Prior knowledge:
The complex is a heterodimer of chains A (401) and B (174).
Chain A: H1 7-15, H2 26-72, H3 75-78, H4 85-98, H5 101-104, H6 113-119, E1 141-149, E2 156-164, H7 171-181, E3 197-203, E4 206-211, H8 221-232, E5 241-246, E6 249-250, E7 252-254, E8 259-261, E9 263-265, E10 274-279, E11 282-287, H9 295-304, E12 321-326, E13 330-339, H10 345-360, E14 365-371, E15 375-376, E16 379-380, E17 385-386, E18 393-394, H11 396-399
Chain B: H1 3-24, H2 27-44, H3 54-83, H4 99-102, H5 106-114, H6 120-131, H7 136-143, H8 147-173
Amino acid sequence: MNKKHNDEDIIQLLRSLPPISDNRDQNEIYSKVLKSMNEVKTNRLKGKKKYFIPKLVTVIGLFLVIIIAGKLFNPNNINEETNSKMEMATDKAGQLDHEGLSENNPQEQFSSIQDRNVDKSKKEDGKNENAVYSKDLKEDSFLVTIGIPDEQALNVIPVSIIAKKENGKNWVDQVNDVFGRINEEKLGLFDYLPYQGNFTNKEENSLNLNLENNHQYSADSTSEMNFFTSLSYLKYQGINKVSFSVAGTPGVHFAHHGEKIYELPLNENLQCGFLYYETKGHIFLTPTPSKFSSIEEALINMQEGNERYHLKPTIPATLAYSVSVENHDQLIFKFTNKIKLVDNESDIRMIESILLTAKEFGFNKVQFQNVGNAKIGSFDLRKAIEVPVAPNLIDLHAVTP
Amino acid sequence: MDSVFQEIYEKYHKDLFQFIFYTVKSREIAEDLVQEVYIRVLKSYHQFQGKSSLKTWLFSIARNVTIDYFRKEKGLKNKIYFYFDGKQNEVKDLHPIPEEIAIQNEKIKQLYQCLHTCTVDQRMVLIARFLQDMTIAETAAVFGWTESKVKTTQHRALKAIKKKMEILAEKEGH
Lengths: 401, 174
C-alpha cells in the first residue's frame, strides 16, 4: 500500500464520503421545530416570573444594607467600597467590631436574621455538629456517603450514613442495601436511590457500577451531571475509581457527554467551598457549584452564597479573617477581631463548613485563632481541629421507609 | 406548514444535515442541531436582507449552531472533570460508525476516522469545500473570513489528515 498521500488524494477521498441522510421526514422535523420554539417561549416566560422575586429581594436587601451601613459607618469608609471583595468583607467587619456592635452584644455577632429562624430547628439531642468525624467511625461500623439531588435537581447533596457491619455481608452488599433503604423524600430531597444498577467491588478502592439497560441517567445533560456528581462523593469512603458497564458490557454511552465512558478516576479534593441548603426542616452543607483555585476564593464564595442554586452563605458576609498555612497540612483561620463563638447552629455550621472546605483543599487540620471561648459544641478551639471524614451525617433509622 | 421552512427544507436540508453530521459525527446530535438551525432561521428570516445569498446565510447559521454545540459540550466536559481528576485520555470516544460509512472501502473509513484529527474549523472548511463544493469565496463568506484564511485553514487541515493517514497506513503495513 502506498503510504504517501498528496493533497489531491485526500480531496478525492473527501469527495467520496457517502451522503448521510436525515431519516426523519419533513413533517416530523417541522413539528419538532415548532414544539421547540413554543417551549423556548414558555421557558422564557417562566424564567421571568421565577427570577423577578429573588431579584427584587436582592435589591431590597442591598438597599437595607446601604441604609444600615450608612448609620453604622463613617460615610468616608462607605466610599471605599470599590476595593476587592476580600478587602471589603475584612474592612466592614473590622469596623463592626471596633465600633461597638460586637462589644455590646458579642453573642449576636454571628446570628444573622435568617440564621435565627434556622436555629428554631435545633436538633433534639442538642448536638449541632452534622459532619462525620473519625471518632464517629467505630470498628464495627462503616461509612456510606452518596450524592442525592435536591427536588429541583439544582444541587447534589452529599449525605452520609454510618451503618453497622453485618456478619457475612461484604462492604459493597451493605452499601447496596443502604441505598435501597434511604427515603430521600423524608430528607426533602429527590427520590434518586438506589441507582438503576448495582455496585460490585472491582479491586481495592475501586467500584464497578453495572447499570440497567433502560437507565435514565442520560435523559438530559442535568441528569448526566447529577449522576456524575452523585458518584463523585464516593471518594469520601476512599473510592478512587468507578468503572461503568451496562447489562454486563463495559462502557456506558452518555449522550450529552458525547462519549462512551469506561471508567473515571475520582478526585480526592473537590476544591470547593460549602454553602448550606435548607429543605423541609433539613439543612445540608452542600459543595459550591464552582471549583476554586485557592481556599481563599472558596471562603469568599461562602460569604456570598449562591442565590441561583438556592444556597445560603455559611460565613457571615461581614466577618473579617485571614488564612495561612502551617506544616503543609494545617490551615490557620484567624479572626481579625477577637470574637466569642456561640454554641448554636449557625456558628457550628460556619466552623464545620470551614473544616469541610479545608478538607477539599487537602488540609488535615484547622487551627482557629483569636477566639474568646475555649470550646464550641464538641470542638476544643485551643487545639487544631481535625477535618471531618464526610459531610451531613443522617440517621438512617429516621429516614428508612 | 411555514413556506420559508418548506423552501429551505426542499433546497438545502440534505446539504445542511450533511455539513453538520460530518462535523459532529453523530446522527442524533446532527438531528438536534439541524432543528436548531431551522429555529434560528424561522426566528430571524424577516431580518434576512439578501445581502448574502440564502445558501451563505443558512450555512453561516449552521456553522454557528455547531460551534455553540462544541462550546457547550466543552463546558459540560469541564464540569464533569471538575469531579474527576482530569485524565481525559482515559475517556474513550466510541461514536458508532454509521452504516453508510461502514460499507465503504478501508481508505474512506480511515479518512472518516481521521476527520477528528482536525480542529472543528478545519473540519468544517474541508466539508464546505469538498463535500458541499463551495468555492473559496463562498466558504469565506459563510465563515466570515478572508479568502486567504480559508486557504491556510484548508492547507493545514489536509496536512493534519495526511499525517494521520500515513501513521495509520504504517501501522497496517507492519
